[in-house]
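Please, structure for the following, as tokens.
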Amino acid sequence: MSTIQEQSEVLKKDLAEKEALLIQTQVGAFVAGDVKTGGGDFVGRDKNITGGTGSVVAGGSITGSTILTGSGNTVGGSTQNIFAPVYQAIQSASLPAQQKEDLSAEVEEIEGQIVKAEELDESFLARRLRAVKRMGSDIFEVLLAALNGPGAVVSAVAKKVAEKVKAEG
């Protein structure tokens, strides 16, 4: 057998071994080997719990997460986690101190408006967003990412206003 044929056979065998390991779960989980849960549940996808008052126990860091318990849940209140990167970007930007202060004030106004989700003043929010965009387009991009990020607790209206301001020339 020639060297090329030998290499071809090795490659075919390697491919066959890899294809044997190919697992298509679609949306579920696959675990090869043992799972040690420490006494907790192993859930391959969504775990829905109904009834009872229960409690929530979280291990590790859950910073930026939203945990809902009870019935009639709403998401709102704390915007600290979503705006923290914006304030950090302002402080680390190479801008004059006065401009950083002005940007921080604008973002504080936006944050205050976001908390009032049901009473949101769209024109006020749009003006504040435009001001941030004029003062620092890079800061505006960080703000936009914060408002649209997975941890954001902002209303759909606020997100639409932000996208509209972004689309403006």
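The chain has a mean pLDDT of 74. The CA atoms of residues 28 and 46 lie 9 Å apart.
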